[in-house]
Write a structure and sequence with these properties.
The chain is mainly alpha-helical and 196 residues long. It has nine helices and no strands. The two termini are 30 Å apart.
């Protein structure tokens, strides 16, 4: 779909056209759910956040300015919702050990057999990253956006995006090396081929 078509669709959405809105949802739903799943690590939460994203697209269509592609605006909404959700979840996850019920046992990494190996290590390393690094990395390496497009989505200069991608990749590499106990190299080819 061309930008002109997207501009026409969002224009119709501004006027309350539900069919145009349904078309936008069809175009972006899977991409946004996948993106949010990569950020949150939780498919159900990603679906909920994507629904909230599209509600905001519908009700705030009048605020969209055609400076950047519609996709950048939608991803920016999703990114902001994910950041807020991650902050809320981190605050909620800080619990005193004394507050835990006595029957609750601490899990160990070996208990997580269902998500082991390289994929599990990468997921855990991504989840451990701050959203300031995770969002640009997911947008660049998993969603295929250019650094300029990412800058428009997260509303930061291109230089900041480049630095965050570089720093984030270095942090991921260190996390993966410590998880495997040896030197570890994850090539772009492995990321793009889905072997991560």
């Amino acid at each position: 779909m061309t930008n002109m078509d997207e501009q026409q669709l969002i224009g119709l959405v501004r006027e309350g056209d539900e069919a145009a809105f349904a078309q936008i949802v069809r175009i972006y739903k899977d991409k946004i759910v996948n993106y949010l799943c990569q950020l949150t690590g939780d498919y159900q939460r990603a679906v909920e956040l994507s629904q909230e994203t599209f509600l905001r697209v519908y009700f705030k269509a009048g605020k969209y300015r055609p400076i950047a592609p519609l996709s950048s605006w939608i991803y920016a909404i999703a990114s902001n919702l994910a950041k807020t959700d991650l902050k809320r979840r981190r605050r909620a996850s800080v619990v005193s050990l004394e507050d835990l019920p006595p029957a609750m046992e601490a899990s160990t990494p070996s208990d997580e057999a269902s998500d082991s190996g390289l994929v599990g290590n990468l997921r855990r390393a991504l989840e451990a990253l701050s959203p300031r690094y995770r969002i640009p990395i997911v947008l660049k390496d998993m969603e295929g956006y250019s650094q300029e497009e990412i800058a428009a989505i997260i509303k930061r200069p291109v230089g900041t995006v480049k630095a965050r991608i570089s720093r984030g990749r270095n942090l991921l590499k260190k996390q993966l090396e410590s998880a495997t106990g040896e030197g570890f190299v994850l090539s772009k080819r492995e990321i793009y081929d889905g072997r991560f």
